[in-house]
Amino acid sequence: NLQILLKRRPVGAPVPEDFEIVETPVPEPGEGQVLVRARFLSLDPYMRGRMADVKSYAKPVALGAVMEGQTAGEVVASRHPGFAPGDVVLGGYGWQRFSVVGPERLFKVPAADPPLSASLGVLGMPGLTAWCGLEDIGQPKAGETVVVSAASGAVGQVVGQLAKIRGCKVVGIAGGRAKCDFVVKELGFDACLDHHGDLEAQLDAAAPEGIDVYWENVGGKVQAAVFPRLRDFGRMVMCGMIAQYNEAPGADAAGAPPGPNLGPVVRKRLRIQGFIVSDHGWARYGQFRAELEGHIRAGRLRWREDVVDGLPNAPAAFIGLLKGGNFGKLVVRIA
Ligand code: NDP
Prior knowledge:
CATH topology of the largest domain: Rossmann fold
Bound molecules: NADPH dihydro-nicotinamide-adenine-dinucleotide phosphate
Helix content: 25-40%
Number of helices: 10
Mean pLDDT: 95
Largest sheet: 7 strands, mixed
Strand content: 25-35%
Oligomer: single chain
């Protein structure tokens, strides 16, 4: 079994030496378990958190253990009555070719239509994140202005398109011309602003009316530019702050970029709420998937993937994800 282990806890940005690639025997499923062969591995920003030994909503990966991650692939052996060899599934575990998993959070999915990798992106955890955060927290209404950071990424693409379907004006924020062009021309956002430029001025030009919903994927300077432009009764969906993930422990307080002045939260009656998709999201996976598949069939929902070939290339691809090297949902195709 080809596996990628966490060898060392990174200080700052991860480097290739923090990972170790090993070959081990293929595991056997125990009673009630299933052996899954991965075809695709999802690489996601939350994995940076699992590499650090700090108190969080989930336990860190132990040193020497397989890196955490979700895969999609097929069942090769089963000791669970609900699954048989050949079933195509979402829900294998880890940066590895074979994994033994229980039936919890193992979903049978189509093999090809839509493509299997979509079950890790638009129809997987990132899409579910977008859908839950909008349903539960953002609640955008027709005519409102929604701003989405990391707009060309896995979560951001879906957030913006779902907000468009609800009749909102949607402004994305992304890094660079190519990503911004894609967000407007391919995904149909009303505008997309480059965070390498003067974001304050671009926001004033694109949304002079102010912002009703801000979908926060990035934090740092982007947050500081957006926050003062929220309107009365605005909602801030706190999904992630990737710009701050490589900071040293404790930097949230000390070394982080200056945060916004949250004073206006009261005067403007703002709602700022964080959430973790795994808390309640998977229980609603069926409803979410049916709704989004409907949008895909109707031609209302598109997506872009960034596919990297070969499990040994996962560490480099993940390191790139934390600095904007990916263009679209990042997945690894496993031979
Ligand atoms: P993406 O596919 O959007 O990839 C990450 C993107 O973040 C990069 O492409 C880059 O886009 C942007 N980025 C990276 N570093 C920086 C930086 N220093 N400053 C500004 N932008 C940066 O990732 P996901 O869609 O998977 O995740 C987006 C966010 O959602 C993350 O914060 C993640 O942690 C969070 N998340 C939260 C969940 C929850 O349950 N709360 C679940 C899933 C994701 P660009 O080049 O455009 O800047």
